[in-house]
Structure formats: C-alpha cells, structure tokens
Amino acid sequence: MASPNRIPEIRTDTVNNRWVIFSPARSRRPSDFKSKSNPSNPTSQPECPFCIGHELECAPEIFRVPAAGPDWRIRVIKNLYPALSRDLESSGELGGRPGDGRVALSGFGFHDVVIESPVHPVRLPDLDPVEIGDVFMAYKKRIEQLQCYDSIQYVQVFKNYGASAGASMSHSHSQMIALPVVPPTVSTRLDSMKEYFGQTGKLSLKTKENLQFLQAIDLGRLLKLTLRKMNVQLNSPPFNFMIQSSPLQVSPTQLPYTHWFLQIVPQLSVVGGFEMGTGCYINPIFPEDAAKLLREVSIS
Amino acid sequence: MASPNRIPEIRTDTVNNRWVIFSPARSRRPSDFKSKSNPSNPTSQPECPFCIGHELECAPEIFRVPAAGPDWRIRVIKNLYPALSRDLESSGELGGRPGDGRVALSGFGFHDVVIESPVHPVRLPDLDPVEIGDVFMAYKKRIEQLQCYDSIQYVQVFKNYGASAGASMSHSHSQMIALPVVPPTVSTRLDSMKEYFGQTGKLSLKTKENLQFLQAIDLGRLLKLTLRKMNVQLNSPPFNFMIQSSPLQVSPTQLPYTHWFLQIVPQLSVVGGFEMGTGCYINPIFPEDAAKLLREVSIS
Ligand SMILES: Nc1ncnc2c1ncn2[C@@H]1O[C@H](COP(=O)(O)OP(=O)(O)O[C@H]2O[C@H](CO)[C@@H](O)[C@H](O)[C@H]2O)[C@@H](O)[C@H]1O
Ligand SMILES: Nc1ncnc2c1ncn2[C@@H]1O[C@H](COP(=O)(O)OP(=O)(O)O[C@H]2O[C@H](CO)[C@@H](O)[C@H](O)[C@H]2O)[C@@H](O)[C@H]1O
Asked: Sorted alphabetically, which SUPFAM superfamilies does this protein's record hold (chains A, B) (predicted)?
C-alpha cells in the first residue's frame, strides 16, 4: 500500500457535500476477532491490551476511574491508531461546513478509547447500572476537556459491539472522536428539529439535559435493560450505539430544540445499494411492532 | 412478528429529515447464501428461480432481451417481495421533501429485479462489453417506462454482490426501485453540485448524458475492466454499485450541473458507530493511492 505514514487529512466530497477522513495509519490496527465472518465470538484469548495489568501495551492514558490507584474500573486512553491526530497544528482555517470552498483540511482532532471494564469477558450489560452510569460520566468528563479546544466543534461518542458492527477489539469499550468540523448529519438534524419545532411548537425528542450522576445511573439502568431485552428477543445481535448530540457551540436561540439522545442500532440486516444510493432505509418491521416486541420480553 | 401483511408505508424521520420505508413483506424473502457469514460463496446450488427454465418461479416479467422467444439474455421482472407496492393508489399527497409536515405516505412505488444472465454461475464481469451494455440499455428502457408515472420522482438502480454487500440471491442481478419522493442524498447532491458549479463554473463530475447504445458498450467495457482489476487487486470483494442520477423532473436551469454517474463501492471495511453517527467516512487509503493501485494492475 502506498504512503502508510502520511498524516491524516479531512477532505470535502464536493459531490455529496460531506467530509471524508483519510487516515492511512488506521489500516495497521489489530483485530482480535478470528475472522470477520464470526460476528460476535472473539477468539478465546483471555487477555488483551485493554485488560488490567496490560496498561503498558496501550497508548497513553488520559484518565482513569477511580482517579488514582492500580484498581481501575474504567480507563480513557488515546487510540493507538487514531483516525485524526491531536499533534497537527490547528490551522486557523478550520470550522465551517463542507462546500465552503475549502477542499482539504489537515486531519486535526482527537480519537480516544473508553475501556469500560478491567476484565476481558465482561460485556456492557453485565455491568450494574451504577457502573454503566460511571461510563456515561467518563464520556461527560472527557467531552468537557475537549470543549476547551476552540477548534473542536463536535464530539462523537460511539460503541461498536461485534465484528459485523465494525469492532476490531472484543474487550468491552467505546470510542470518542473529536472533530474540527460539524458533521453533515448533525447540522441536518439540527435544522430538522428546528423546522419541526417551528411548525408544531413540539420537540421531536424529549430527553434530559445536563447529565448528572443520578440521571446517569437511571440511563445506565435503562441501557442495561434494553440491551438485555435485545439479546433475548433478537438473539444477541451485533450492535452500535451513538450519543447523538449538538455541536459544542450552540447559540441561545438553538437551545430550545437541541437535545442529546442515545441511539442503539442492532445489526439485523445489511445495508445494500439502495440505502447507500438514497440514504433511505428499508425496514421490514414497523417501529410500533418493534417496540411491542421489546416491551413484551420479561427479564428476570 | 406482528402484522406481516400490512401494506408498506413511507414515513418521515423528523429527527434526521429522511424517509424510511416500512415493508413487512420484505422479511419473507428467501436467501440462497448458506449463511451471512460466508460473504461471497453461494451454496453450490446449480439452479435458482432466476435461472433460464425457472421463469414460472418468479414474479411476473416486465420485459426481456431479446424482446421475444425463449432464449432470453436479460429479464426485467417484478420483485416478489417488493419494498414498495405498485398497487397502492397514488394518493395525490405524494412528492415533496421530508419535513413538509406530512409524516407518513402510503408505500407506493415500483421494485424490479434485472436478471443479468440466464445462467447461474455467470457473474457480471464474465459478460462481454456488449452484453453489459445491454444491461445498461435495459435499465434505460425501464426508467423511460417509469418516467410515465407522474408521481414517480426518482429511480434508484443498484447492484448488491456478495452476502456482506446485502445480496440474498447469488444469481447475477441488479435492482431498480422507483420512489414517489426525491431521496435526501439526491437533493443534497444536486444542491452541492449547484454550489460548486456556481462558485467555480466547473462541474464536480464529468459524464456523458443520454446514454446511447455505443456509449453503453463503452461503459460496459470500462465496468468490466474495473471489476476485474478490483477482483485481482482486492481479492474479489463483495461490492455494491449504484447509478446516481438526478430526480426525474429537473428544471432547465438545473441541467448544466445535473449528471449521472456509476458509483462502485467495494466492501473492504465495516461501517461503525462513527460513520452512522456523523455521516463522515474514515478511509485508510487516499483516493490517489487507490487509483494508482487499480491503474497498475494489468489484466490479460
Ligand atoms: N493497544 C492499543 N491501545 C490503544 N488503542 C488501541 C490499541 N489496540 C487497538 N486500539 C484501538 O482500539 C479501537 C477498537 O475500536 P473498535 O473495535 O470499536 O473498532 P475500530 O475503531 O477498529 O473500527 C470500526 O469503527 C470505525 C469507526 O466507526 C470504522 O471506521 C471501522 O470501519 C470499524 O471497523 C481501534 O480503533 C484501535 O485503533
Ligand atoms: N422468485 C423471485 N421472483 C422475483 N424476485 C425475487 C424472487 N426471489 C427473490 N426475489 C427478490 O430478489 C431480490 C434479490 O436482491 P438482492 O440479492 O440484491 O438483495 P435484497 O433485495 O434481498 O436485500 C439487500 O438489498 C436491500 C436494498 O438495498 C436491503 O434493504 C437489504 O438489507 C439487503 O440485504 C430480493 O429483493 C428478493 O425480494
């Protein structure tokens, strides 16, 4: 492969009006799944770089929970194969939307990994609500740190579970990517929520803002329950979750309709050419039926 | 599963400002891949409903090439498990963009399958350029038929090759879905090309319009070469291709910057939470390096 050491770049796709991150370093990251064809079964490897005792095999730590001592429960670390580089000078040229006329930016940004448990076989829904709440509080703390960089405009928090949902490491973790641009889906969502709010006076989403620790535990309880129901009813599918939020800088007039939410996407079908071409999804099940299905499972 | 016989519906996702098609019938379609985990190897089944001699196992034919006689080379048929239904009354309410205030439409539309060869093991790049050209001419003919329906606003032509690119049938085929709405990616692309044209006087794409038979053969030759190079250099990956075009109704002022193109997407990595959340893609290889890689392969 050509130029594996080139620094990352963010380029505008002028046809589709979106940003693409080019990051040759990413091609070298390891995978501890036997093969992409076995979606959720990691190799029976008992230990990996994300395990307690293997801290030195990882990229540097940003912080841990609890804050000091060897017995951590959560670690926020740098990604060893980052899509964006924190070392690139922010060019002053950054910010704005694709289509501004600037066709490429240097790939400045942050890419972190949140290790959710010190122990290899533990999965997120195995944690108790307080422990999941701690993971949310770790996201929050890291977002607050990233907010201090003027040129960072958006932080995407996400989790890939299972190889066919994109995961390359099986040890329970999520990721955070801080971008010097506002991604197109985020501005579209904001415009769309504004339009709906303007037309109806209603919010298309109702969520709590300002996440506090007690709310984080509530959310932890809800996420645990949802994932467990999904595992029972949908046969432990690979899944992604994303914290969908607003740009870091929002104006006071945008506040009434900007809310964050957690989106969980179980991987039950494959995206085909229709979805890629149109951006429209074909769903074989109506949302009210899917909700009923999940409501009906009883979890002991 | 609840309500498998409900008619399809197109609903607005008011958060993301996009359409979602709900189609319970889709969940019943068969798959002749042994398991989704083996991306490109169909079961060694020698015959399927798409094979010559099995026409009666298929949904009704729309037309064939050549137009009459039992020895067809291409068949355009109705999809037996359509995402949209051609039988639903067009409601008069159709058209427009998500966000118009209308939250659901009846799922009116057309969903066809283009069988590209009468014989099971033949893949698209095995055909000669003239035969591939015939496939493009079949798309064109069908689009011209669909254009006669006032309420059809966009036709998406696409191909899924290999189970991990979404294919459920291994016999060489592509699909066409005619929609009563303009999908969001299409309007975004049009806006984006307009902006680029306005700023630079240049087209972000250079393609031929009005596809004639000789051009179709040229395109067939190019597609065959590209797919064969991709197979050699990237180890026969699953892939999708999409014909990206403009809405069926374009105004004369839009003509200078509306062009269609063929997009080929080899499936080399999995879309993860970051891409789902942001709509931004992370690419481990720069486009100029990928182009070099393909340029360098020599095909005997
Ligand atoms: N020793 C170490 N120290 C620190 N970090 C280490 C490390 N070893 C590995 N890592 C990092 O750990 C991360 C694990 O992340 P995931 O398993 O969620 O998926 P990954 O980011 O590989 O790709 C998926 O998610 C991305 C983003 O959605 C998609 O682009 C991609 O196609 C999909 O496969 C990797 O990003 C890797 O770079
Ligand atoms: N006897 C018969 N007569 C007529 N038609 C028949 C038939 N038997 C099967 N079919 C149809 O043939 C089509 C084959 O299409 P593909 O293999 O390209 O993928 P499919 O549409 O299943 O789903 C992929 O593509 C869609 C659209 O991109 C995604 O929504 C989905 O997740 C992905 O798996 C199916 O749509 C099926 O309904």
From this structure: HIT-like (SSF54197)
Q: Is the CB of B169 under 6 A from ligand 2?
A: yes
Cβ B240 vs Cβ A272: under 8 Å: yes
Among the ranges given (A55-59, B31-35, B268-272), the one the predictor scored with the smallest mean pLDDT: B31-35
Interval B254-260 mean pLDDT: 78
Place of tokens 């050209």: B133
What is residue A36's predicted lDDT score, i.e. its pLDDT? 43
Nearest CA distance, B95 vs chain A (angstrom): 15
Q: Is B173 a catalytic residue?
A: yes
Interchain contact, A283 vs B191, CB within 8 Å: no
**Residue B222's pLDDT is what?**
95
Given B54, B111, B173, B259, the catalytic residue: B173
**CATH of span A9-296:** 3.30.428.10
Q: If you classify domain B9-33+40-296 with CATH, what class do you get? A: alpha beta
- What's at A160, amino acid-wise? N
Query: Which of B6 and A147 is assigned the larger pLDDT?
Result: A147
CB-CB neighbors (< 8 A) of B286 in chain A = 2-3, 6, 9, 22, 24
pTM score of the predicted model: 0.89
